[in-house]
Q: What sequence folds into this?
């Protein structure tokens, strides 16, 4: 059997325009250029620690974030035919209201142009199949801090005119009050109407107190916030959407959850059980309406998962929760989790996910092909 | 095939002595007896809300917590042959140092006596097989706030003289600073030496801020703290043990994780990947030693999971992470999650877990029998 198509749905960029914006800032998030060495990205308020010399604060941000050629080389080295690139966190969450619309348009136009230019160079007539050439599509970003929700809705509609945009990426803060905020209604309606996929991605993690305080959190480097805080942030966000009945009110909303749903597939049963046992909800004689549709139904109709979970245990839960293999899509999280030894070309974070897919669907070539790229090509209409 | 043995490893009690202690208290946790109706249990500081009339604060605590006959009836109604009872949270975490030893001894003696008396009544000679009669064993509680760790170690050793004690239940705070506290070394050593199973169970959840603040948390009743906070608390606690190298230093420690590990089976791959990519750890040229054994190895040698996860997605992840079906054990979480309609004798929280086990191991009778009771009988030496 021929090698299946491989599509990476979880791969981030900071376009040069975004890098320039971060360089001009002096508060988190910002980029600082030390006297020597790579620029530093100070992305979280905890990174901006005055006890650390400014030249060592945050993390190095090399060209893999902003130079699309570095990503194309990475794709070739890892057998990836097509990447659906998205702005990395924290997106535009932090912008002043007056700046939001302009920056969203600029960055989305940059993403569109990057995809168009690249795809034209590999196939001027767009007639070749995706397989075997390096093709790019993109998830756009939204001006969530804009002074009016109409500006966000208008940007979603404008994105329909950009041929390489296949959805939008969003964090968990929404307009600043989480994704159960009723003010987001018009945004959900616009996403339903355009049938853009919403790629929901963490950034804020959990408060240090959850891990036992700042001292404990720091003791283990980034492990607790990244390994546990990020997945829980996603799970909390989507559970708040469920509990506030977003999926009842907008039943055609299509969401791709980062990191195989955070922990949603594993906890879905417990969430459903807790809802059924919650006296507060009307069906049980409570005082507010609870969600009308079961979490299992929502997992099978509204939610897609990436396969960025680094093991068969997570993938098996993802498949069982989603009712099959047709809602799961390969991803890498590039340029995050590079090999620690700089000489290594093969990224173990990527090969771990490849191996987990093979091991989970042992001998089921159709399932492997679906997860690696077939699902993404169909769901995102990549052509 | 005959009906398999069913053992419930996750079932809680408040012995009458513990109830009396809570009734004598005026600060959290405490029990308040309203002028009419059932006593109220005020267990969390958030329950002790002065804006709520005292007679309505907290949750009703009926006889299912303290009357062992209610549990025996529940067991008969749900086909459970044997229960390994444990003190419910918050155990003795809150006691003044001087009180801790005395209360631990008293409660553990009460648990022992309850089991002994019951088992003698169903089989005076202890000669019958477990199946078909209602047998009790227990996980004991530890005086964790005692002024010296020796008192805790001595209680563990004393427990070996109580024939129905099969392990100890513990929360995530340890001596007050979490389970990565080096001061806990002698406790881990004593548990290794006695080969008592440590049943690790959540109580504290996550700070409200993790869910978007107290107002958001309350909006959905107990769903966010119970469905997401509890499992994450367990996951964080065991990950801190792993990162602080507890399993390297005490490789024979045997831990049973509540709620199928919280989210550990699902997140194990991500935790392992984050450790491998953490510059702080020595193997990678960092400045502190990282864990020496892989999380997958620890899941297969040190960790047991209950099957209280309410769905096939969670169970499949639990089996995949633990390398098979021989480390997973049925549980109910009784007396929590009773039916909301009081007339119902069948608890949907229990039947959901029964059905999930059947659906996960469809047709594999040996696996079903192992998870329902065979594993517990072997691991806990129930006879």
A:
């Amino acid at each position: 059997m021929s090698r299946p198509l491989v599509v990476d749905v979880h791969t981030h960029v900071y376009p040069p325009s975004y890098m320039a914006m971060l360089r001009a800032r002096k508060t988190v998030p910002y980029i600082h250029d030390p006297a020597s060495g790579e620029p530093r990205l100070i992305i979280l308020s905890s990174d901006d620690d005055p006890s650390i010399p400014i030249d060592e604060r945050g993390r190095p941000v090399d060209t893999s974030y902003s130079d699309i050629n570095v990503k194309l080389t990475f794709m070739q080295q890892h057998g990836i035919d097509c990447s659906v690139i998205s702005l990395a966190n924290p997106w535009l969450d932090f912008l002043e209201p007056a700046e939001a619309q302009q920056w969203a348009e600029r960055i989305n136009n940059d993403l569109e142009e990057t995809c168009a230019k690249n795809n034209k160079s590999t196939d001027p007539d767009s007639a070749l199949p995706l397989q075997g050439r390096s093709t790019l599509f993109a998830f756009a970003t939204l001006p969530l801090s804009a002074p009016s929700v109409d500006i966000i809705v208008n940007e979603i509609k404008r994105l329909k005119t950009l041929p390489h945009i296949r959805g939008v990426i969003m964090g968990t803060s929404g307009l600043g009050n989480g994704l159960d905020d009723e003010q987001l209604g018009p945004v959900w309606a616009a996403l339903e109407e355009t049938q853009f996929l919403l790629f929901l991605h963490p950034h804020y993690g959990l408060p240090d107190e959850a891990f036992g305080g700042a001292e404990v959190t720091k003791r283990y480097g980034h492990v607790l916030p990244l390994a546990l805080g990020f997945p829980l942030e996603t799970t909390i966000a989507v559970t708040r959407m469920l509990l506030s009945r977003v999926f009842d009110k907008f039943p055609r909303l299509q969401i791709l959850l980062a990191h195989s749903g955070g922990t949603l597939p594993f906890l879905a049963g417990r969430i459903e059980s807790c809802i059924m046992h919650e006296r507060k909800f009307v069906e049980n004689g409570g005082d507010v309406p609870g969600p009308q549709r079961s979490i299992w139904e929502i997992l099978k109709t509204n939610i897609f998962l990436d396969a960025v979970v680094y093991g068969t245990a997570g993938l098996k839960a993802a498949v069982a929760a989603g009712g099959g293999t047709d809602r799961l899509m390969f991803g890498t999280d590039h340029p995050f989790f590079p090999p620690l030894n700089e000489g290594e070309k093969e990224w173990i974070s990527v090969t771990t996910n490849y191996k987990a897919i093979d091991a989970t669907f042992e001998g089921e070539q159709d399932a492997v092909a679906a997860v690696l790229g077939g699902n993404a090509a169909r769901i995102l209409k990549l052509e």
Remarks:
- The longest helix of chain A spans residues 97-122.
- Chain A is about 40% helix and 10% strand.
